[in-house]
Amino acid sequence: xxxxxxxxxxxxxxxxxxxxxxxxxxxxxxxxxxxxxxxxxxxxxxxxxxxxxxxxxxxxxxxxxxxxxxxxxxxxxxxxxxxxxxxxxxxxxxxxxxxxxxxxxxxxxxxxxxxxxxxxxxxxxxxxxxxxxxxxxxxxxxxxxxxxxxxxxxxxxxxxxxxxxxxxxxxxxxxxxxxxxxxxxxxxxxxxxxxxxxxxxxxxxxxxxxxxxxxxxxxxxxxxxxxxxxxxxxxxxxxxxxxxxxxxxxxxxxxxxxxxxxxxxxx
Length: 267
Fold this sequence. Notes:
Number of strands: 10
Radius of gyration: 21 Å
Distance between the termini: 27 Å
Largest sheet: 6 strands, mixed
Oligomer: single chain
Number of helices: 8
Strand content: 15-25%
Order of helices and strands: HHEEEHEHHEHEHEEHEE
């Protein structure tokens, strides 16, 4: 299936790029001076981020049942076992739509988890990593295989613990182990989860940004679409404003085929 430039503009809600405004053209010295001026603000933003991270390390913690049972590729196991003997554990609660095909599973969670699925740098630092989903394991296992994900996924469908199986999915949880006791130290959801979406950070560096209507754009820039309009795409790779297709990364998976419109959900 091919998509014309005008079709893509229709999907995104953007005007054709040829008609859109662009930044003013200046000499190199003028550009560098403007860039240096913005860098002062960026450095202040970085320092504030460091200060927030320092405050985060000083949050209190609350105990969670380390014996809570989850089900993974090797059968039932416990939250304590997921630490694999390490002091810390990071969990991602991946949203799941029961009974839906792979292409209708959460595009936002796919983006959140995709870039951080290999936990090598976490484990090198002594932090274990796992993913939880509220799905029957026999339904979850073929999805994990199709996506080519590591075998650190676990079902919490029957887990009797409100931290692991309740609340918002699309959430990062951080834990600390003290002997046989486990403690929740941090929880992040919503836009806080963008820390693990490097594609969004890179787009924010570009002149056109994410092309989402909520963002602040200069006069004459392409009109923005719905938040996350490009997280789901058709087989041409064009974002289609959540109207169907697959989570964009799925087109790189072996066996991915065109699908009918109508899947997914709006964030």
